[in-house]
Structure formats: structure tokens, C-alpha cells
Amino acid sequence: MSREYVTIIPRVRVDYKMKLTNTGKPNNSAEPANEFKATAVLLYVKGLSEQLRRCLQGAVFKSETTLRSRLVRPKDVVDPAKQDGVVYRIPCEYSKVYIGETGRPMQDRIKEHDRGIRLARTETSAVSEHAHNTGNKPFWNEVKFINRDPYYYTRRVKEAIHIRLHPNNINRDSGIEIPEAWMPAIKKHNDRRAVRQRSAKGADH
Questions:
Q1: Residue boundaries of the structural domains of the chain
Q2: Cα separation of 192 and 184, whole Å?
Q3: 82-180: CATH class
Q4: The organism sits in which domain of life (predicted)?
């Protein structure tokens, strides 16, 4: 027995059966030796399937909703704050920002920044130094995940790019050295993406 899928009608299975004599050989009588038995498996559509059943003998209608489709769900999206190997942005008052990177979960690094402010660790934390020198506190609820990269060097490059994209930053330096010739093209791409994001937000409202 062989099976062939007919493409004219979606999800149609056709079974071919050869009629054999008692001796196990094909029947040589006038009756055709090949007998075709077709079973059409079609997607069930309420209202339409009832009408097709009258026309298509042997048709089987099947719903796409199965027990598996009801029970199996896609994996939950990982919270960016729990991801490791990230570049992030901490907004502060007066449109100031801090750009950082970490190989650990972002939420752990943010807690360290917060602890640095509370313990006045101004020598080891640019965020703490800025907070104590100006009295401006970071907006912890608005920390933004920028990008994820598991590789240290390329993550540092991305950090340096975003430091340059935010000239109003409180970072102590510009990060790893990168060719300045990159920046015009990067800024142009970043501006276009910002326009697309604003357009998408406007369409949602």
C-alpha cells in the first residue's frame, strides 16, 4: 500500500489498494485489477464542512485544535533584567544617563549600583559619584535593557557605541576605543530606528 498527498485539496490523503485473487496474484478477469480507495482529510470549517460532506463520499473532517495545541504553550519570554551579558542604560534626572555592561544578570548589577549609592562608594561607581555630587538619584524603575551579547569584547564595543550615542552621559570615560569613522553610519541607523519606533507607537494609539 502506498500513500500520496493530493495538492489540489489541502490535507487530502489517498490510499491505493490493489485487489488480489485468492492465489495472491493480480486478478486477470475483466474486472479492473486496481481498485482505488480515497480518503480525504480536510480541515473542519463550521457550516462549510457540512455541505462538503454531502458531495465528498468518504471525506473526513478534522479540527486543527488538538489536545496538544491546548496544553503546549510557547516558552515564556525571559525577563531582560534576569539575562546575563547585557548592555544597559540607567536614566537620571535632567536627561542624564549612564551606559554600562555586565556579564552577570542585569538585575544583580543594578542592585550593586544602588548599594554603591547607599554606601557612598564614589570611587568605584560613576553612578554613585554622580548621585552624591549632584544629589540627583537614578530612576531605577526606568532602567533599560539595550542589547545582549555573551562575548566580552563585542559587548564592550556595543557599550562604547551607546556611550557615544548619548553624549549627555555620566560615564567617566568613553569605553573601549572604537573607530570614530563608524559613528556617522551608526547614528544614521539609530535615528532611522527611532523614527520607526515612534511611528509604531503612534499607530498603536
A1: 40-65, 82-180
A2: 12
A3: alpha beta
A4: Eukaryota
